[in-house]
Each structure stands twice: as C-alpha cells, then as structure tokens.
UniProtKB/TrEMBL annotation:
A Pfam family annotated for this UniProt entry: NAD_binding_10
Species whose genome carries this gene: Epicoccum nigrum
Protein name (record): NAD(P)-binding domain-containing protein
Chain ranges of the NAD(P)-binding domain: 9-232
UniProt record similarity statement: Belongs to the avfA family.
Lineage per the UniProt record: Eukaryota, Fungi, Dikarya, Ascomycota, Pezizomycotina
Length: 277
C-alpha cells in the first residue's frame, strides 16, 4: 500500500538519508524545508525513485500553534507524518524552544487530531525522559543527567515535553478508536524513535528496546530504523543504538512483545503538564 509522508525538517542529515529510503518503497514524500536554496539538494534525492517527491518551502520556526500546523497538514494531506526537524543549537535557547518545543508540539497535536493521519513518528533521543528506568545502570543515569542538565538543558526541556505530548495524546486517541470499534491494526501509531549519540557511520544492524544511555547510533541506521518502525505495528518509545539485528525484524519483535520504553515514567504527572500546553 502506498503512503504519503509529510517529512518535516527535510534538509536535515537524517532526513536526507531517509528520503530515498521512503521513496524506494513507492511511498510518496512531501519534504518540508526551511529555505528555497535547499530545494535542489532535496529534489536530487527523488531522481529515479518509484515514489513521488514534492518539496514544500515553509520554515518550522514560523509554526506557532496547532492551527498553523493544521493548515500545512490540510494542504499536504499526508497519512503519515515524520518530525525530523531541529534547531541544531542554532539561534540559542529561544530558537530551540521555538522549533523543538513549540513547532514540534504544534505538529504533534495537529497530526493526532487529524483522523486521516494514521502515524506520527518523531525523532527524539535516548535520554529524553524524566525518570530513571529500572534497566539503566548508574553510568547510564549519570550520562543522561549530564546530557540533560549540563550539556543540552534547553533541548532536553523541549524534547521531553514534545515526547510527553505525543504519548499522552496518542493514548487518548487510541482509547477513543478502541471504543469506536476501530480494528487494532488500523488504530493510530505514535512513535518516538530515540537514537543514541548520532554518528556518520554506515547503516548497519540495531539493538533496540530496554537499553542503557550512552550508546551510539549512526544517522544512516537511524534512517533505516525509521522506515522499519513505520513498516511495522510498533507504537510508543523506541530506543535504538547500533547493533547486530535487522531493524525491521528487531522492531516488529518489540511490537509483538508490547515493549515500549515509555513505561516507568510518571504519566499522571505528564498528563497534568500536557493539559497546560
């Protein structure tokens, strides 16, 4: 079955690796990029691919509300949305919050509240969580604390909030769809794909599931893991680092086992936070 994917942050490194992989599946992609001068590089990714590539020039920094994001979704009409945008440390804390918090949450809300959007995948990172899960050792916890509180405090604040919005609202939609009798395979999938430290290594196998913080994930492997996650029944938080398993096989196994690393977070407190955003 063909799909139409809105890829937000299409000029990013992971997104440029991801685009031809999506197109090679005969899936259609609308790549949303910030400026017109980025367009030729993106259009080149669509050459000789079975899927159709469109380019939308529209800066995520201009998206201030769910309504702004909704207008783009209505224009593009995707059935899947992938968030791979990020301020990348440019523009300081203000721009990080504008992109990684405000725009990310706006697109998350708009996607979940659009019935024709069936999947929303955001690219997050391994340490984007508030609590210490039972499968983390002391070193993992120390690594996460240093990353979140000392190295990337604004980024952490933005990403963990966006992850919580995705999870809380996805669960609400799933509950409603279950009550409405929507078959399980057809219900909404909200996915937070959470790589380790990104590298420029070649694509390879993965280790997924309940893994410690501090691992590395190549951008190319991350792109392949995104495709695999979209192509399986997975829902929830998906931690992924470089490893030995085939991405699709490993991720489908998690889906079959119901393993979602959002467990052990305080979701009652998260609901309160999300209600105020």
């Amino acid at each position: 079955m063909s799909h139409h994917i809105l890829l937000i942050g299409g000029h990013g490194k992971v997104a440029q690796l991801l685009t031809p992989l999506l197109l090679s599946r005969s899936w259609n992609v609308t790549s949303m990029i910030r400026t017109a001068d980025q367009k030729p590089a993106i259009e080149a990714l669509g050459k000789n691919q079975p899927g159709k590539l469109d380019v939308l020039v529209s800066s995520v920094a201009d998206v201030k509300s769910e309504s702004d994001a909704q207008q783009i979704i209505e224009r593009v009409k995707p059935d899947w949305v992938v968030w791979s945008a990020g301020a990348g440390g440019k523009g300081g804390a203000t721009n990080t919050m504008a992109v990684d918090h405000d725009a990310a949450i706006a697109f998350t809300k708009a996607s979940i509240h659009t019935p024709s959007v069936k999947k929303f995948l955001t690219v997050s990172y391994l340490s984007s969580r508030r609590g210490r899960p039972s499968w983390w050792d002391d070193k993992s916890w120390e690594t996460a604390q240093k990353t979140n509180n000392e190295i990337l405090p604004t980024y952490f604040k933005a990403k963990v909030a966006a992850d919580e919005v995705l999870t809380v609202l996805s669960r609400e939609r799933l509950e409603k769809e279950a009550k409405d009798g929507v078959p399980e395979k057809e219900r909404f999938a909200g996915i937070s794909l959470r790589p380790g430290g990104l590298t420029d290594g070649k694509a390879g196998g993965v280790t997924v599931g309940k893994i410690g913080a501090g691992g590395k994930t190549s951008r190319d492997t991350t792109a392949h893991a995104i495709v695999a996650a979209l192509d399986t029944d997975f829902r929830g938080w998906l931690d992924v680092i470089d490893g030995e398993e085939d991405p699709k096989t490993a991720i489908q196994k998690l889906a079959d086992q119901g393993i979602d690393t959002s467990v052990e977070e305080d979701w009652e407190a998260a609901k309160e936070r999300v209600s105020k955003l």
